[in-house]
Amino acid sequence: MGHIYKNRTPFDTVGEENPVDFKCHKLILARSSKVFAKLLFGHFKEALHDKDTPIRILGISPTAFSIAMKYVYGNVYNNKSVSLACEVYKFAHFYQIEGLVDAAFDKLKNPTPKDVIPVYELSKLLIKGDALKYLVIIRENTSEVLKSPQFIKASQETLVEICSLDRLKIKSEMELVEALINWAELNASKTDRDELSQREIIDAALKQVRFFTLKGDEFSELCCSTNILSEKEKLQILMSINLNNAKHMPYGFTVSSQFRDVKGHMLLDFMDNIPYSSDTKVSFESSQQNFRFLVRGSDLKYLTSIRLYCLLETSAGLEADLACNLWSTCPEEPLAIAKFRGVVSSASVDPDLHFPRPILLKSGVPYTLTISYYHKTPLRSKIFKNAINQVVWEFPHSDFKMYKSGNVF
């Protein structure tokens, strides 16, 4: 909050909690801004007050106002803070100080991940630039953004937008949950900081968290550490995870089982002994294909989907009825099944068969992938292999690659 006293040297009293007086000149302020000119010499009611009556200025801190006045008086803009640049930009935009708008915007063009939140929020309101540019920074540097001091100042709307994105650079949904809880603890009313009030202000964002991608023990640890979820919600989510069935999820919560940070797909070539590129057919006569493989390495590897080339547009218009079953052979047990039934589309081709939830592949454990075809209509598929008859399998959520030669991995 600020004031201007209308004598020869008006004062700006800036700041709501600890106001600071700034001694300024009416003519200089009026020359820099049409809004100030009308405010000080026009017919606004503020201009009709007694010369010592303060005129209010809203929405700028004393530090940011000082930066703005240095520019107004001496055309000097020296500011290294993105947060202050946002304040100055809003002030300059409102009072139509064109040169200052440009000077502040230069600081906001390429924010770092730790400073991107206020710039993104400002871009949706005032900045002419594309807000998508800043949203991409959030998406590609999510972990760093969530840990930044600026995230605590984010609006509820921004929280929901971030948690609703399909792609985020996070290791686990736990990062989102922890960031939301931290945000709620610091933004809940000072007189009402219980967990119920904290839940209310993050409810919409929390329901976009993909709890279904968590493991049972991960979610159990979360249940022990916070009461941000009700006891009923905890039970329903845990049932969904352990039973691998999203229908038990609480009402309003997302049932998505896809990881946010997916680096690729598992590329499956289900035909053997074709050394070069060619067209092939898959039909009922070869109704089942089995592939055995091992995963090695210490990094966590999750399987979220299988890509079948027979579902590409080369088979558009053909009916397909098939399933991919993933089995663990030690002990022997079914892990998940992904199905496709319908007509292959050329308009919106999605050849990926998604499992109900990500499957953790353990190092050294043999797995079997069975592809079953139930429809007699042949499906066409373009198959690519290199000269040494190998195919690369790329695993989501890791940099791991597996090379196929025959049916043994």
Polypeptide structure, described:
The structure is a single chain. By secondary structure, the chain is α+β, with helices and mostly antiparallel strands. It has 13 helices and 13 strands. The strands form five sheets. A four-stranded antiparallel sheet has the order 5-10-7-8, with no helix packed on it. The model is unreliable at 1-9, 263-280 and 383-409 (pLDDT under 50). This is BTB domain-containing protein. Residues 11-81 form the BTB domain. InterPro entries: BACK, BTB/POZ_dom, SKP1/BTB/POZ_sf. It holds the Pfam family BTB. It comes from Cloeon dipterum.
Lay out the secondary structure:
Blueprint lengths: L10 E4 L5 E4 L2 H7 L1 H8 L20 H13 L7 H13 L3 H11 L7 H10 L5 H10 L1 H6 L8 H9 L8 H15 L7 H12 L9 H10 L5 H13 L22 E3 L9 E5 L5 E7 L6 E8 L10 E11 L2 E12 L8 E10 L4 E8 L5 E5 L7 E4 L6 E4 L5
Parallel strand pairs: 3-6
Antiparallel strand pairs: 1-2, 4-11, 5-10, 6-9, 7-8, 7-10, 12-13
Protein name: BTB domain-containing protein
Pfam family, one: BACK
Topology, number of strands: 13
| Global morphology | elongated
Task: Calculate the terminal CA-CA distance, rounded to whole Å.
Answer: 69 Å
Output mean pLDDT: 76
The low-confidence parts are 1-9, 263-280, 383-409
Summarize the main sheet.
4 strands, antiparallel
InterPro entries: BACK (IPR011705), BTB/POZ_dom (IPR000210), SKP1/BTB/POZ_sf (IPR011333)
Protein name: BTB domain-containing protein
Domain BTB: 11-81
Organism: Cloeon dipterum
